[in-house]
């Protein structure tokens, strides 16, 4: 009986484990990052899928600039701005164990805040919508979240109305 050395199966198992580790974490759908509403050629600053299957996205392209999108691929329910100059604002709060970032804007009579919050090991992300009559609705991300909101800090004005900034926005020039 010819037996293989024990090192061969161990090497194969080790190689498989290293391959899985290098592939990165997978989401529930099997992809390592959400596909979403930002097409190739655009930069995705935020992208996730909600429990209802709709997508939330902040995308930037050379022709459109930064744009918020909500809906499904091929069926975008809201794109802000549709035209014209956007009015996005940035807010961030950090202390040990807490990191909260928001990009907000006003569209019609509603205020929107795309958010990514981490407290301890708990993460929540999505978009919060507050209407003029005081009704609030949060669309929470489910599954994988692509978030690069921090990269927008230098590009967007500080949100002086956000409590996250603790009143520390620089004076306008």
Q: Regarding quaternary structure, how should these chains be classified? A: single chain
Major β-sheet strand ordering = 4-3-2-1-9-8-7-6-5
The count of β-strands is 9
Provide the structure class: mainly beta
* Spatial gap, N to C terminus: 84 Å
Model regions low in confidence, pLDDT < 50 over at least 5 residues:
1-33
Q: How large is the count of helical segments?
A: 1
Output the helix-strand order: HEEEEEEEEE
Rg over alpha carbons: 21 Å
Proportion of β residues?
over 45%
Question: Main beta sheet: strand number and arrangement?
Answer: 9 strands, antiparallel
Task: Name a few traits of the molecule.
single chain, 173 residues, mainly beta, nine-stranded antiparallel β-sheet, 9 strands, disordered N terminus
Describe the structure.
By secondary structure, the chain is mainly beta. The protein is built from 1 helix and 9 strands. It has one helix spanning 7-23; strands at 43-50, 55-61, 65-72, 75-80, 89-95, 98-107, 110-119, 122-131, 136-147. A 9-stranded antiparallel β-sheet has the order 4-3-2-1-9-8-7-6-5, with no helix packed on it. It is globular and about 40 Å long.
């Amino acid at each position: 009986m010819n037996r293989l050395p024990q090192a061969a199966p161990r090497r194969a198992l080790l190689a498989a484990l290293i391959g899985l580790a290098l592939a990165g974490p997978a989401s529930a759908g099997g992809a390592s990052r959400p596909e979403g509403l930002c097409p190739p050629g655009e930069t995705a600053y935020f992208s996730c899928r909600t429990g209802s299957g709709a997508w939330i996205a902040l995308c930037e392209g050379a022709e459109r600039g930064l744009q918020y999108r909500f809906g499904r691929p091929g069926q975008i329910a809201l794109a802000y701005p549709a035209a014209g100059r956007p009015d996005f604002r940035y807010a961030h709060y950090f202390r040990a164990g807490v990191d909260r970032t928001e990009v907000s804007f006003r569209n019609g009579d509603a205020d929107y805040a795309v958010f990514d919050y981490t407290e301890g090991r708990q993460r929540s992300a999505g978009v919060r919508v507050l209407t003029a009559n005081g009704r609030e609705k949060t669309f929470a991300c489910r599954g994988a979240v692509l978030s690069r909101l921090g990269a927008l800090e230098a590009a967007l004005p500080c949100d002086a109305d956000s409590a996250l900034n603790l009143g520390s926005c620089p004076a306008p020039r």
